[in-house]
């Protein structure tokens, strides 16, 4: 079984479980940093806009800690500021909501280099 972590969103976790991922949901990026790093993670799926630390700040913090985790960013916002954030996240696949199951799985495969 593959592992995936999401922050936050139970609907997304349900989708990942149905695709045979052992998905874990964390309520915030901070909670993931406190409790989730000791686990095997094949791919992190996180929203750009989270309460507290953003998804992009989370990825930066993981880099500072020397923790390389393949990641996919998602967002429901389509404003110029968000588009700029997506552009800056160059090597990280980013999906705009709504997206299909296959778009998510394709983005996860790209992130994991599969």
Shape: globular
Helical fraction equals: 40-55%
**In the CATH hierarchy, what is the superfamily?**
Response regulator
- Give the SSE order as H and E letters: EHEHEHEHEH
Count of separate structural domains: 1
Q: How much of the polypeptide forms β-strand, as a percent range?
A: 15-25%
If strands are numbered along the chain, what order do they take across the biggest sheet? 2-1-3-4-5
- The low-confidence parts are none
What is the SS-derived class? alpha/beta
CATH hierarchy: architecture: 3-Layer(aba) Sandwich
Mean pLDDT: 85
Describe the structure.
The radius of gyration is 13 Å and the shape is globular. Strands 2-1-3-4-5 form a 5-stranded parallel beta sheet, sandwiched between helices. Helix content is 41%, strand content 21%. The longest helix is centred in the last third of the chain and has 12 residues, at 101-112. It has one domain (2-112): Response regulator (Rossmann fold, 3-Layer(aba) Sandwich). The mean pLDDT is 85. The protein is an alpha/beta fold and 114 residues long.
Notable features of this structure?
single chain, 114 residues, alpha/beta, Rossmann fold, five-stranded parallel β-sheet, 5 helices, 5 strands
Which helices and strands occur, and which strands form pairs?
Elements: E1 2-7, H1 10-18, E2 21-25, H2 29-35, E3 43-47, H3 55-64, E4 71-75, H4 80-88, E5 94-96, H5 101-112
Parallel strand pairs: 1-2, 1-3, 3-4, 4-5
TL;DR of this structure?
With 114 residues, the protein is of the alpha/beta class.
């Amino acid at each position: 079984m593959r592992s995936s972590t999401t922050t936050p969103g139970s609907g997304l976790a349900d989708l990942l479980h149905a695709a045979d991922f052992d998905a874990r949901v964390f309520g915030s990026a901070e909670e993931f940093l406190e409790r989730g790093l000791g686990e095997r993670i094949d791919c992190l799926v996180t929203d750009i806009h989270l309460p507290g630390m953003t998804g992009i700040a989370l990825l930066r913090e993981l880099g500072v800690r020397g923790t390389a985790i393949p990641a996919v960013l998602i967002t429901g916002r389509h404003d110029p500021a968000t588009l700029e954030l997506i552009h800056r996240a160059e090597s990280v696949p980013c999906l705009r909501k709504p997206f299909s199951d296959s778009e998510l799985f394709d983005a996860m495969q790209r992130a994991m280099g599969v």
